[in-house]
Design goal:
By secondary structure, the chain is mainly α. The chain contains seven helices and no strands.
Length: about 140
């Protein structure tokens, strides 16, 4: 059982990071429509918003997948997921928006688990000694 447990954090990181990476790649191919969408919800500097989204989704997704600085990366991605939920998926009268809102909230919950517990043994963080399970009260990025 201990051998299987080594793979659980890696599997979790894969399942959380791949959708972020795919979303970041799609933002690269749909630049104008994403910038227009960001502008349509009234956020300032939509071009900057697009850049932030691509960096967090592609860069953060890749770093999380590798388990590099996973606690800090997961915290940034959790904040991003919650901000996205509140700014872009807040029309609860529309079922699709409610589903996307809840999806982002669930993603943030999973990411906060990584913030607390770390990347696990099969990660770059483990090689540097940052992947051990958190002690009580630990878990904040260092």
């Amino acid at each position: 059982m201990a051998t299987i447990n080594r793979y659980i954090p890696l599997t979790g990181r894969i399942l959380i990071s791949v959708p972020f990476i795919m979303s970041g790649l799609s933002k690269l191919t749909a630049h104008q429509s994403i910038v227009a969408y960001i502008n349509s919800v009234g956020l300032p500097l939509p071009q900057l918003g697009w850049i932030i989204a691509v960096v967090v989704e592609l860069g953060g997704g890749a770093l999380l997948l590798l388990g590099y600085r996973a606690r800090l990366v997961a915290l940034v991605m959790a904040i991003f997921a919650l901000a996205t939920a509140f700014f872009f998926h807040n029309n609860f009268a529309e079922q699709n928006q409610m589903i996307n809102f809840l999806k982002n909230v669930m993603l943030a919950g999973g990411l906060l688990q990584i913030v607390y517990f770390g990347a696990g043994p099969l990660s770059f963080d483990a090689r540097s000694g940052n992947a051990s399970p958190a002690a009580p009260g630990a878990g904040l990025p260092t």
